[in-house]
């Protein structure tokens, strides 16, 4: 016996939001044919028994129980499932029995074609996101904390401002600038024996840290101001303060402008004008070029990599400004062979961002696509893997260059090889499998560990550092001090 569901099953209160138009039309047509077939069967039986043509009157339709129940249930906003079943045995005996009762629950609406397709897409997206385990988003955590705090309170304002500055990204920017500052080769002319000033000023480092932090906060706030509409479409960004309207647009603009002005001012007077210019340039590139380009071309990733390479140059120029012998302008602080180390460290940060971002973006490629961001992860997945592999291989010559230009000892080239090999191995898997089978997750975490390990190794293997430590420990004089003593003895003998 085939059970036909009545048309009324499509009129439940949530029917219009759970059943598409084509399925609703198909269900209604099938139910209409079922009722018409039952009516036709009953009428034919009456004709066969009585031998007369049935006279259908208008009262028949108003007295029909099914239609009465449908009208009454529709008025209440719901419907009681009912149907008329014709028994084959009763038909043979010349009687039609209409039985009312609750039908077995029909197949889930999710079994309808469009629901199956939607479920498949959700499952694929969940599987992709599950392939890459990201740490909790600090901006989202701060936003939740701010939302729970009293309105117009300091406990609410501080987390909102921190969330606008993207604290994790800002900390990464500051650490790269400070690491490069510490890697600058200290010239002998600044050794304590020849000057009262320390080799690298702690006060300069403080201004560098403060100014870089404020510049990064300004750039990130401008980035959020440009994208609230599209941030709401992505799971990673839909909890940002501007999306949740925890702060007004005017307030966010004021924070971005003030932090940018304060940061560049601190760098100008506390460090040098060249570093201040680089900080302002980074704000302009990140907020004015990279952010809008994300919706125009996949080249935005390369622009973002350049933005990430500027903080190392800021740290290098801050240290170089303390040993400047001429005008101390940007040519002296950034150009020339003596400043090649700063550009190599900037190249290290540029190269690192490609395997890191390509693996990160792969797991949320559908969200980038739906939001309209032009990323290689969904435009050209194969090229996405090739780019990650290409820049992973670049770390070998970069680490070799740091040794060649006397930024680190030659042992750094050996010590950095294992971590570089690990990154390249994960990049090869990511390229071959196009992010599948956990390759995106493997490359992401390899990149997360790669940068701090390489930077720490470089600082540990800084050129001449352990020689200075050994001389200080055993009390041996510096070679320059010996030469100075010899010159003084010669002068005394001449007198």
Automatic annotation (TrEMBL):
Coiled coil: none annotated. Residues 76-146 are annotated as: Disordered. GO terms for biological process: heme A biosynthetic process. One of its GO terms (cellular component) is mitochondrial membrane. Keywords: Heme biosynthesis, Membrane, Mitochondrion, Transferase, Transit peptide, Transmembrane, Transmembrane helix. Its EC number is 2.5.1.-. NCBIfam families: cyoE_ctaB (TIGR01473). Converts protoheme IX and farnesyl diphosphate to heme O. This is Protoheme IX farnesyltransferase, mitochondrial. It comes from Glarea lozoyensis (strain ATCC 20868 / MF5171).
